Amino acid sequence: MRYFDFEKNYNKLLTPEIVSYLTQIHEFKGFHSDVESQKEILAELVEIAKIQSTEASNRIEGIITTDDRLKMIVKEKTMPKTRSEKEIAGYRDVLATIHESYEYIPIRSNMILQLHRDLYKFSGSSVGGNFKAADNVIAEELPDGTRRVRFEPVPSWETPEAVNNLCDDFNAAMNKHAMDPLILIPMFILNFLCIHPFSDGNGRMSRLLTLLALYRCGYNVGQYISIEKLISDTKESYYEALQESSCNWHEEENDYEPFVKYMLGIIVVAYRDFTDRAALLTNKTMSKPDRIREVIKGTLGKITKAEIMEQCPGISQTTVQRALSELLKNNEIIKIGGGRYTSYVWNREND
Hints:
- The chain has two domains: 6-280, Fic-like fold, CATH 1.10.3290.10; 287-350, Arc Repressor Mutant, subunit A, CATH 1.10.10.
- By secondary structure, the chain is mainly alpha-helical.
- Strand 3 and strand 4 (343-346) form a beta hairpin.
- It is globular, with a radius of gyration of 21 Å.
- It has 15 helices and four strands.
- A two-stranded antiparallel ribbon has the order 1-2. It has a two-stranded antiparallel sheet with strand order 3-4.
- GO terms for molecular function: ATP binding.
């Protein structure tokens, strides 16, 4: 039976690059704590993150619906119709549970089963809340249509005890207070994914558990910036890191560094995005057009009107369009494409 010695692998992970990530996150967390009390100002960031997180985490697994239906489902303004929409609604509710009650949800096997049960509560599927009843594999489909097995998780009969041991060993490592939880959490998630305890929903559960563990340790940035979206936007790197770190897992000779480094990089980006957006939202002297201007100026590369609106909650589409027209007129920005593919870039020739 597999046990999980977090301490044995911990010191190997204190590389200069990882320590740099840790330092940045701890510094960002100080700013985050300063502005987090301004709940009214940040409330719209929370609503945007909920929609993005629900959409992105499901999209990674090929579970999709239209943008309009997604927003209505997340805001609970309609009932889910299709199988995909029912699973999206389940994710919405589990995400809300974690946001609102993370302090009361310990990382334990029975809690993981309850969260997984709720993930499938609208679908009526029997897989919800139950560990896999048959062995499964992690496979990929190659361009020629053939299927290749990337990883063989633990067999079904070992799964309950493996998850119990993983939770117990993780909590024991956390309770020692000698190791940074920002390293322990990705290690926990990597092991969870290698166990692959469910017949379906392992990826989504891993992302929900990432948020739960981070929130319980005081790293709440995922409430304001969608960590799931950042993972979805870098999906290829995510799978590469997962593949590298799972190699030789069964022999307990795997290298956690690629996955830990990837996840810490995601958290750094989330805090950086939060810092930038919060600075704009809390600057009461800046006009709405100026906020739109700064968002575009601070973006390297193209940005769409929809993305501008995501970063400027509380500013109407009419105001955004008026500001874009003025910036184009003054030659401060450049318009690219047309119709639904229209985007904008800052004219850096004027800098």
